[in-house]
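Bench notes, afternoon.
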Amino acid sequence: FSSLCRLFHLHKDACEYYTKLSEAAARVNYTHLVDIFACSLDQVGMLEMRVLIEATGGLMVLADSFGQSVFKESLRRVFRRYPDDVPGDGGMMSMAFGGVLEVLTSKEFKVSGAIGPLTSLGKRGPNVSDVEVGKGGTNAWAIGGLDPTTTLAIYFDVSHPGTTALPQNKRRHIQFLTRYQHSNGRIRLRSTTICGPWHSDVNDHNPIKYSYDQEAAAVLTARLAVHRTETEDVSDVLRWVDRSLIRLAAKFADYQPDDPQSFRLAAEFSLYPQFMFHLRRSQFLQLFNSSPDEAAYYRYILIRENCVNSLVMLQPSLLSYGFNEPPQPALLDAQSVRPDTILLLDTFFNVVVFHGETIAAWREQKYQEQEEHESFRQLLEAPQVDAQLIMDDRFPVPRYINCDQHKSESRFLMAKLNPSGGDQGGSGAAQLFTDDVSLRVFMEHLMKLAVQS
């Protein structure tokens, strides 16, 4: 017990130390940023240093050793340059410095806060909400370092009272002002203005349904959930995710009260529940088998990546390769694992090429080296080529894993699959032995709770 208390105090002291360092960096016009490349099998303190990296807009890379491509190639890509044929930027490094983001809004709604690699400038104004989300209490933030892929999440609060209808054809406006120093030394200002209509009829949800972006909503929810883990227990965050999903389904689904069989979600909402299912099982909220440094690393990458990459982290993509069909997307499910197929899994942090039992046995017998089995050689090469294409432009560079069914490294794929049970996949489908509920059971519980009167 005394050892645990001592470790807690060391962690607290380290966090306070790096917080003070981030404040010191902020006093120098937000032009200092801290990048950390840590390569060790032991804990190096990423958990405690994350506050410094996040506040200064720096980069974080975590690997097992400095000999891995995860480190060497990631470091090289930090200094990437624009192609020579890009007007105005050709040949220049793609990084930028000393960024400031300011958000202006029309009076019907206010800025609640932002989540990402930034720090608050403490600039209050009439469009700053009292309801804080992430780094709130301001409408301007500093970004020490940014690049073309840096993505920030901005949250808003509708301040107009719902009891008063807005005038017909009322428009809303948001303006993002981003100022930064380009790698050529010049200061640039980018202004992005968004305009759209208001909808105030509480009895008609159709305009909201048709404009709902479930992919962006899933990423915004994931970022907010990760942010809440800094001050709340993970179990409380999971309950918040569940309650939010139930409220959304109860409000926008079509159903008869107390009849789960009548539950229907519109196409604009149909994927959102499965995003939340995978978020609950992800390394962002489930810390089993992740060290404190790894958890900090995964969470930091999530809050700075764009929507597409963030969705891959939440719900990895899976491709299937077989003899009788071209490569095609496969369900992230245990029934997709078959002895005569090769699977390519992209989790953003790992790229896994998984060989079924039969494919692996044929490869060990070197059938691919025989002229009469040219098609088998091409089958083995296809996922390798596609895996390289995935890894070519990604930062940080993902870890490449080549594994076979029933071997130890196959866990990197099996842990991401929905445990539906081999009986649903027919003959040859794999079975997963786990305490996790399947997506089908998850949806049944959602429908039951959403339709309760």
